[in-house]
Specification:
The chain is of the alpha+beta class. Helices cover about 35% and strands about 15% of the residues. It has a four-stranded mixed sheet, with helices on one face. A hairpin with a 3-residue loop joins strand 1 and strand 2. The two termini are about 25 Å apart.
């Protein structure tokens, strides 16, 4: 999915629902399902919080820029929100987080203002 392709709320819900059982302690889903849920949710967040002040990283699947403010163009971004795929998806659905995200910069915590994105 290209970053220019819009993610609808229904597409987000479908992608995240596919890994919902895992997020509630069930068996691990296929890597492709985790990747789809992570990418859809990160890109959806970038749509509802457009900008270039914070780099949201969920390795190895996606990195997007979000949050309105000064644009970052070279070197290490000053504001980074980085999370494991599972912890990110737990934040996305409003579940207790198994692993805290790593935040750097004073703008990175603003990502949390937009979460949860979907309830399943």
């Amino acid at each position: 999915m290209s970053p220019k392709v819009k993610v609808t709320p229904e597409q987000l819900r479908q992608a995240v629902s596919a890994v919902g059982e895992w997020l509630r302690g069930g068996p691990e889903p296929a890597r492709a399902d985790v990747a789809a849920a992570v990418r859809a949710s990160a890109r959806y967040l970038a749509q509802i919080a457009p900008g270039h002040s914070v780099e949201l990283r969920i390795p190895p699947f996606v990195a997007v820029q979000c949050i309105e403010g000064p644009r970052h163009t070279r070197g290490t971004p000053p504001n980074i929100f980085e999370s494991s795929p599972r912890a990110w998806l737990e934040l996305v659905i409003g579940a207790p987080v198994s692993d805290e995200p790593q935040l750097s910069g004073h703008r990175a915590p603003e990502v949390l203002d937009y979460l949860p994105l979907v309830r399943i």
